[in-house]
Design a protein that fits this description.
274 residues, two-stranded antiparallel ribbon, 13 helices, 4 strands
């Protein structure tokens, strides 16, 4: 309760016009970074496209040695077609923009933190590096998990399930949208531990309450998977729901560990010197 007035006093030092000016500067820097990186990605968009077709034309093979996985080409290759004159160009632009956004995400997170930092207490500001590192790592981990594990299984299932007399003709727009939605959704879902730790630090929830409501979290995980997954089949929804449940458990564990560390720090501060 003591933090509120101090925080408001620090924020009130600047007039609203300067706050808006600061926000505008941060937004322009963020937008400029995304545009520049997206422009570089547009130059390599052919390579990005080729990479995105791996789950469609390859099967995943796991191994015990580094790099622990590989993509083996399928005997039957699927070709992408475009159904409108501008569809292929627009897909190159979309892939470049999404790639630029993902690659620029550490800078975007830093700009967000820098904007809100004046309203934070000194001991809260020390979390900037762990916050940026954790969110970036988890997002990339989720995107990588989706690309390596989920998409190959999903594409193999969807393109071969009861399609004996059918020939798939995949539009580049539909296919790229399918892949990007899956990758971005998994990247966002993998941020769940950070969200739970933040809510615990704010005192909104506790590890005990999260544990007691585990059964509701499992139900919500499947509901969220049904809403986020681009396809209505239960197979792909399950592929997304299971990581959500595991990440929920990871968030509970991280919250407990951080709470124990916080208590140890507070005990060290209050204990009398020997």
């Amino acid at each position: 309760m003591k933090r509120g007035p101090k925080r408001r006093k620090m924020m009130d030092k600047l007039p609203i016009t300067e706050h808006l000016g600061e926000l505008r500067k941060r937004l322009m820097l963020s937008l400029g970074a995304v545009v520049i990186v997206a422009g570089v990605c547009f130059y390599f968009s052919e390579d990005i496209f080729s990479m995105l077709t791996l789950p469609m034309n390859s099967s995943l093979k796991l191994s015990a040695g580094f790099p622990f996985f590989s993509f083996e080409p399928l005997a039957t290759r699927h070709e992408l077609v475009f159904l409108a004159p501008a569809e292929a160009l627009w897909m190159h632009i979309k892939v470049s923009l999404i790639s630029g956004l993902v690659i620029s995400s550490p800078l975007l997170l830093y700009e967000f933190w820098a904007f809100v930092a004046p309203g934070l207490m000194p001991k809260e500001k020390k979390y900037v590096v762990p916050f940026i590192a954790a969110t970036t790592f988890l997002f990339l981990l989720g995107a990588l998990f989706c690309f390596i594990i989920v998409l190959p299984f999903a594409m193999n299932f969807l393109l071969n399930y009861k399609t004996g007399v059918l020939k798939p003709m995949l539009s580049v727009g539909k296919y790229i949208d399918f892949c990007l939605k899956f990758i971005l959704a998994f990247g966002a879902i993998f941020e769940l531990p950070v969200v739970l730790v933040f809510l615990t630090r704010m005192g909104i929830v506790t590890p005990e309450s999260l544990g007691k409501n585990r059964k509701y979290a499992i139900v919500l995980a499947f509901v969220a998977a049904a809403l986020i997954t681009p396809t209505p089949d239960a197979f792909n929804q399950t592929l997304m729901a299971l990581p959500i449940i595991l990440l929920y458990e990871a968030g509970i564990l991280a919250s407990k560990v951080l709470r124990v560390k916080q208590k140890d720090v507070e005990n060290d501060k209050t204990s009398p010197p020997a």
